[in-house]
Amino acid sequence: MRLTKVPLPDHALLQRYARRDDCYTDCFVAPVAAVDLAACITAFYTTPLFRAERLILGIVGHGSTDADVAALAAGQADRYAAWRVEDRTADQILLCDVAGRTRSWLMHEPGQFYFGSAVTPPAPNQSLGWLFTTLLPFHKVYSQGLLGSAARRLA
Fold first, then answer.
1. Is there a contact between 57 and 63 (Cβ–Cβ < 8 Å)?
2. Which of 33, 88, 93, 102 ranks highest by number of CB atoms within 10 Å?
3. C-beta atoms surrounding 123 within 10 Å
4. Is the dihedral of CA 8, 9, 13, 15 positive or negative?
């Protein structure tokens, strides 16, 4: 599976953070069969790798089930685990974590599945901090692992 780090498409919902100087954003893309956003959401949040994250989130009070994933994918829920839907279109979804610091973005276009993240500083005019900088390499590998696993499930 070939994953590529790419610039955010101009119409990406995540662009509102990419345009800010104080935010970190990234965007990865994988080739997929012709599916829709709901299938991408389901594949992404039910991968074995994300199921492990769901277990950890459950321990800290933000548990979720496959039924919760299905409701999010169908557009019937505006919350999922530790995120709330910040924005959604027919082919994209932008989720914000409960602390308001990170965003997760998924987009489907014919033959392409995009996943991106945004991290905002804790307060205006502050940096993202040493912890985020230290964990950034792990974040990139983890992001690619999640997208790759989801894309393989869609193949």
1. yes
2. 93
3. 7
4. positive
The Cα–Cα gap between 81 and 65 comes to 9
Residue recorded with tokens 């949040």: 45
Determine which of 42-51, 74-83, 110-119, 130-139 has the lowest per-residue pLDDT on average.
130-139
3-class secondary structure, 90? coil
Q: Kindly state the helix (H) or strand (E) to which residue 46 belongs, with its residue range.
A: none
Predicted confidence (pLDDT) per residue in 32-57, tens digit: 988 999 999 999 999 999 999 899 88
Which amino acid is it at 36? Answer: D
Alpha-carbon span 32 to 72, nearest angstrom? 20
- For residue 131, count CB atoms less than 10 angstroms from its CB and return exposed for 0-12, middle for 13-18, buried for 19 or more: exposed
Q: State the pTM of this model.
A: 0.92
User: In this predicted structure, what is the pLDDT of residue 125?
Assistant: 64
The terminus-to-terminus CA distance of the chain in angstroms comes to: 10
